Amino acid sequence: MRRHLGFILCMLLLALSAWGQQIRQLTVSPTLPAASGTMGISQDTSGTTYINLQVKHLANPDELHPAKAAYVVWVQPTGQPPQNHGVLRVNDKKEATYSTTTNERNFEVFVTAEDNANIRRPTGSHLLSASN
């Protein structure tokens, strides 16, 4: 009985966290004609904003012309420079998911293809993007 109660509690917490999530459609560059995706946004009472990207039909960065090393996720708060939040990794099904957080309320999230995943400023064009 305790085992079932724990499972039910976990499912309830998961449902409540997803309930408050706002979904935005990602704008996709013509460079990635088959790609599509969404950005989920949720916030907690401490001011943390949770960002979840889900992308389908995404070519690996080394399949682009010219080939690149990684897709980099950037978060750019309004009026500030973009911040490198990490790498969007494509699986063998051409899908990618990525989660990050920010303390900002107003921002743009965008993805670029880069030669170096640790780059400090974006050099590529916005391939995927959405605003909050």
Integer average pLDDT: 90
- CATH names the topology as Immunoglobulin-like
CATH architecture: Sandwich
Radius of gyration: 17 Å
Distance N to C terminus: 43 Å
Report the biggest beta sheet as strand number plus sense, adding barrel if it closes: 5 strands, antiparallel
List keywords for this structure.
single chain; 132 residues; mainly beta; Immunoglobulin-like; 9 strands
Structure overview:
With 132 residues, the protein is mainly β. It has one domain (21-131): Immunoglobulin-like. The protein is built from one helix and nine strands, in the order αβββββββββ. It has one helix at 2-19, and strands at 22-25, 27-28, 36-43, 49-56, 70-77, 83-88, 96-102, 107-114, 128-131. Strands 2-9-8-5-6 form a five-stranded antiparallel sheet, with no helix packed on it. A four-stranded antiparallel sheet has the order 1-3-4-7, with no helix packed on it. The chain is globular and about 45 Å long. 23% of the residues are buried.
Summarize the structure.
The protein has one helix at residues 2-19; strands spanning 22-25, 27-28, 36-43, 49-56, 70-77, 83-88, 96-102, 107-114, 128-131. Helices cover 14% and strands 42% of the residues.
How is the secondary structure organized here?
Blueprint: H1 2-19, E1 22-25, E2 27-28, E3 36-43, E4 49-56, E5 70-77, E6 83-88, E7 96-102, E8 107-114, E9 128-131
Antiparallel strand pairs: 1-3, 2-9, 3-4, 4-7, 5-6, 5-8, 8-9
